[in-house]
Design goal:
Elements: H1 4-10, H2 16-28, H3 38-47, E1 51-55, E2 65-67, E3 72-76, H4 87-97, H5 106-124, H6 127-139, H7 145-152, H8 156-171, E4 176-181, E5 186-191, H9 215-218, E6 229-235, E7 238-249, E8 252-261, E9 276-278, H10 284-287, H11 292-298, H12 310-313, H13 326-336
Parallel strand pairs: 1-3, 6-9
Antiparallel strand pairs: 2-3, 4-5, 4-8, 6-7, 7-8
Helix pairs in contact: 2-5, 4-5, 7-8
The protein binds zinc ion.
Zinc ion binds next to helix 10.
Length: 340
């Protein structure tokens, strides 16, 4: 069976059937263009037969809980100031819209999560509107993730990830995307531009450590957190130009990066940057092993205890919905059920 990453690459991370579903829903509630307001998202929920209920005791491990029997979506009363209030609602009904059943394997859980996130982004950044904006920007050689983010009032990560859906299929630009924890651990990665991600013995990219010279790492050393960060990086598989931004989360800071091969740089704002780096990874001498003198002095004298990042523990497969306490969810639904 082809891997999820393989399927995404083969389809340039573009899924017409999910685009069509998003478009159908936008039309059904009469949205005619521009950013999608919270009110329209609530209309979509109602159109699909769901009522929204904001509660104070949502199970800790969840962002929302859907009662399929009674057509209710439970959401937390308290929203973090920076968090988009539309996404949790969209994600809640996106699963139903995609026809998801309870996942029977971890691979299926991951596939469902990809589809849910795709549909959510396709609603928040409708294909036609987003392509129009990006095509105009391309014509002016000024494509910018920040502009895409601001035009649709979404997070940088949502805008950057959405760009990967449309970049190749609709704009003819190969692209890569990374979400990297401050520890250097790769959380998400996608490419169809031949950039070479690190991978473990089983071929997994998520959970491995990215080169210290890549934009996804160097951005953490930049003092200015408000301006976009651009960098050219020479790698053994060619020169890439990347733009990156830092986001804060409970587990620490993350960088979100979008990059293209050198030849495609001409379409983007920030191509004139003087920031340059050289990456020789996976060559050990690039950034994996300590500099000679330091290594000579300390080899055999250090015994560190590793701390497993919580973000990775949370990704380990347990139960039907990894990281979610099913009993807690059932108890919660029982206590809130209108038919109890
Ligand atoms: Zn390196």
């Amino acid at each position: 069976m082809p891997s999820l990453r393989g399927i995404m690459r083969a389809r340039d991370n573009y899924f017409p059937e999910l685009e069509a579903q998003a478009l159908g829903l936008l039309r059904a509630v009469g949205h005619t263009g521009g950013p999608v307001p919270q009110r329209v998202v609530a209309d979509m929920a109602a159109h699909l037969g769901y009522s929204l209920h904001y509660v104070a005791d949502l199970p800790h491990s969840t962002r929302s809980v859907t009662d399929k029997r009674n057509g209710r979506i439970y959401l937390p009363i308290e929203q973090t100031a920076s968090r988009d209030t539309r996404s949790p609602i969209l994600q809640a009904f996106a699963s139903a819209l995609c026809g998801h059943e309870e996942p029977t394997s971890y691979a299926e859980f991951l596939r469902q999560r990809v589809e849910t996130n795709y549909l959510t982004a396709a609603i928040l950044l409708p294909e036609d509107d987003a392509v129009k904006l990006l095509a105009e920007a391309k014509a002016q050689r000024s494509i910018s993730m920040e502009d895409l983010r601001d035009a649709f009032a979404v997070s940088y990560e949502t805008a950057a990830h959405r760009f990967t859906n449309l970049a190749t299929a609709r704009l003819g630009i190969p692209v890569h995307f990374m979400k990297v924890h401050e520890s250097g651990t790769i959380i998400k990665a996608y490419e169809n531009d031949s950039v070479r991600f690190p991978s473990d013995a089983l071929g997994a990219v998520e959970g491995t450590t990215v080169c210290r010279s890549w934009t996804a790492r160097t951005v953490f050393d930049v003092a200015d957190r408000f301006s976009p960060w651009y960098q050219y990086t020479d790698t053994p598989s060619g020169t890439f130009w990347c733009t990156s931004r830092i986001a804060k989360a409970k587990e620490g800071e993350y960088s979100v990066s979008v990059g293209v091969p050198f030849s495609e740089t001409k379409w983007f704002l920030g191509r004139e940057t003087n920031n340059r780096a050289v990456s020789r990874c996976p060559d050990e001498s690039c950034c994996r092993s300590a500099p000679g003198e330091l290594a000579e002095r300390w080899a055999g004298q250090a015994w560190p205890a590793a701390r497993t990042p919580t973000s990775l523990l949370a990704a380990l497969p347990t139960g039907t919905f990894p990281g979610v306490d099913q009993t807690e969810v059932y108890q919660f639904l029982e206590s809130h059920s209108p038919t109890a």
